[in-house]
Specification:
The protein has 6 helices and 6 strands; from the N terminus they run E-H-E-H-E-H-E-H-E-H-E-H. It is an alpha/beta fold. A 6-stranded parallel beta sheet has the order 2-1-3-4-5-6, sandwiched between helices. Helix 1 (19-28) packs across helix 6.
Length: 182
């Protein structure tokens, strides 16, 4: 079953940014799409979040996982704990180490990169000018560990209410998610 799950970042909700638009585009392409509301994202310890959310997910080899900001490392934790192979993982403005904002509860102390690498076709999309430091350095770190495709832009955080960066559509993410990216 072709399905997708979009994970928002810290302080976001399913109705923010480009999430509804990407959901709609994927549904038009025949995917069943969910965008869970996770108000405790990056506030609750990662092990607790994973143990609460993982049983609610339907993961299979046709699943596409999309994570924005804190949603990106959350995806890695979901995959590492489940061990489930999926089709694609899109890590948008993701971060995998502390980013000078204090303790990030969504981060694991370390990741089993060797276990994670074969579980998905990974796409890291980061910016050189991300105001939260979820930048190209973080994307390169994940790319070096996971392989896949690294896309570097100069477009901030790809949506941020506090930085007045409206980002209502994201054609690049939709194309990658449905397998139409070349």
């Amino acid at each position: 079953m072709k399905n997708a799950i979009i994970f928002h970042g810290t302080g976001e909700s399913p109705d923010d940014q480009w999430f509804p638009w990407v959901k709609e585009q994927m549904e038009k392409a025949g995917y069943t799409v969910s965008v869970p509301n996770l108000p405790q994202m990056n506030q609750q310890p990662i092990a607790e979040m994973v143990s609460q959310v993982l049983p609610t997910l339907d993961l299979n080899e046709e699943t596409v996982l999309i994570g924005h900001s804190a949603g990106a490392p959350f995806i890695l934790s979901i995959l590492e704990v489940s061990g489930q192979k999926i089709a694609r993982a899109l890590l948008i403005a993701g971060f995998y180490t502390e980013i000078d904002m204090g303790r990030e509860p969504v981060l694991q102390p370390h990741y089993d990169w060797q276990k994670l690498a074969p579980l998905a076709d990974y796409y890291m999309i980061n910016s050189t000018n991300d105001p939260w430091k979820c930048d190209d350095t973080q994307g390169r770190l994940a790319f070096d560990k996971l392989g896949g495709t690294l896309i570097i832009k100069q477009d901030g955080h790809f949506g941020s209410a506090s930085h007045q960066q409206e980002y209502k559509t994201f054609p690049l993410v939709a194309a990658i998610a449905i397998g139409a990216y070349q």
